[in-house]
Backbone:
């Protein structure tokens, strides 16, 4: 049953499950899966690599922005990944719910995520990671950290829990560099990596080390 219909059936409010904390409560009670709820989030946008679909362990790369998605797409069949997923900013936090329905392949699935190094990008990763474990794609992030940051994100508010969890994946000096960057109101967008550099990192990295 679709989430709004099940929500109305349970509490007389069609938005309770999706917008008012109902899903989280049902999960805590251990009964969400038993209610056979169909998510009503936007469809997940992704491309598939036919060379990887039969593997027992499969990797999936989620990227925050459209430019990065388009840059990596030509190299998909040369990569170790089964899918390249376009996160579309915050939309991925909900649309990831559709993964199993849209990609009904039995395997041990592992997600990696690559987004902007700014407070909002970190918050998106953190919200996604709470729903579906998604390791930061560190080779991409480390390549970004070698670039010159841009300014103009002073208005973004810090979500301390998100920042702490994100930084825990990095080396000590990298953590310091990211903290300083954020405190100065600077950021590193995904676009700081040229297309050829993106593709080379994706194609040549042994990604099994990062899951």
Residues:
């Amino acid at each position: 049953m679709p989430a709004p219909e099940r929500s109305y059936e349970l509490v007389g409010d069609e938005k309770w499950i999706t917008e008012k904390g109902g899903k989280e409560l049902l999960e805590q009670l251990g009964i969400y899966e038993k209610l056979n709820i169909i998510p009503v989030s936007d469809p997940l946008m992704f491309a598939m690599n036919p060379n990887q679909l039969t593997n027992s362990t499969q990797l999936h790369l989620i990227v925050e922005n459209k430019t990065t998605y388009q840059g990596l797409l030509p190299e998909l069949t040369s990569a170790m990944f089964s899918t390249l997923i376009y996160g579309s900013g915050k939309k991925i936090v909900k649309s990831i719910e559709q993964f199993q329905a849209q990609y009904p392949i039995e395997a041990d699935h592992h997600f990696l995520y690559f987004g902007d190094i700014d407070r909002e990008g970190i918050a998106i990763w953190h919200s996604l990671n709470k729903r579906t474990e998604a390791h930061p794609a560190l080779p991409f992030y480390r390549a970004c950290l070698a670039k010159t940051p841009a300014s103009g994100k002073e208005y973004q508010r810090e979500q301390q829990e998100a920042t702490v969890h994100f930084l825990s994946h990095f080396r000590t000096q990298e953590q310091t560099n990211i903290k300083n960057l954020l405190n100065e109101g600077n950021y590193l967008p995904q676009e700081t990596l040229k297309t050829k550099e993106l593709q080379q990192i994706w194609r040549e990295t042994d990604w099994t080390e990062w899951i």
In short: The chain is about 40% helix and 15% strand.
